[in-house]
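Standup notes, structure subgroup. Blocker cleared on the pyridoxal-5'-phosphate input:
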Amino acid sequence: MKKLEITLRKTETLKAKPDWNNLGFGRHFTDHMFVMSWNSKEGWHDAEIKPYGPFTLDPAAMVLHYSQEIFEGLKAYHGADGSVLLFRPLDNLNRLNRSAVRMCMPEIPAEEVLEALKQMVALDRAWVPQASGASLYIRPAMIATEAAVGLHPANEYLFFIICCPVGAYYAEGFKPTKIYVEDQYVRATAGGVGEAKTGGNYAASLKAFAEAKAKGCTQVLWLDAAEHKYVEEVGTSNIFFVINGELVTPPLGGTILPGITRDTVLKVAADWGIKANERRISMDEIIAAAADGSLTEAFGSGTAAVIAPVGEFLYQERSIIIGGGKTGPIAQRLFDGIQQMQRGILPDTHGWLVRAI
Ligand SMILES: *Cc1c(COP(=O)(O)O)cnc(C)c1O
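Run returned:
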């Protein structure tokens, strides 16, 4: 494959910076973006770091009709030594390529795109928030741009990366959430696209989220589509339980997203001598283990929150309180430890950090 040439076109007018104390999530975007195009003749071409701005799309662009779209989410942090650090970025770009294969889209040259990403983050370094817990959220995405109404894998695509400074996920401190156990709607079925980070999965989940919210819950716990019995994921995070002091998390079987934070939790737990079991776990088991006191913690894992402790599940009108509704020691230790690894405060024993600066 020929080397990707990346053009740099800097913005002439820098945007006003947001209120750093009130960033929220995904509301402000940096000065630049990375874009490149693909067609079957030229492959990836016209790679460019350029001023952030809107795209022009044909109304017949296939993404608008058939949702051929994939995305990723990762973060950059200020390192303890003044560097700007990316956490496991190649894992995200490789996962994007696995999503691409599932959705009949072209794979990207991950290492060259990582170089472009580093260059762009360095260019927009003034947008990486300084506050503890805050970070620069990075959103790579690919869309089908071929103008055609008539279903087939598109012959033209656009890949882009945009970045937004985000505040600490827990602005008011680390607080356990109340989760609605969804036993009607499902997220993914065996043989479907559950393990791809593709837009349609998220559009399909909105109804369940809205209903969970109306019931006073912040997220949905998804169950398996066949029996509505086994736990799958929580919202857009993977799920962990602590039972008899060991971690339990559903196995990657095609219907759940292979989270990089999930993998980080499993590896860090192994480093710490905490046993982890990747196995199916049913709601019946959770109810019984919560009742007999062997289930002491539950938490979600994902890039946005890192660790999101669960204080309560609402399941068929009954409340299941976990760990007295408080954040447990393992969730707390993972939350603190992983954040320190992401910022280079703890030694990078797994080679997870990539310096942008
Ligand atoms: C992105 C995502 C996750 C978490 O993945 P990370 O790589 O840890 O951020 C989990 N579940 C779903 C459905 C997701 O979209």
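Discussed briefly. The chain has two domains: 6-166, 177-342.
Next: hand off to the docking folks.
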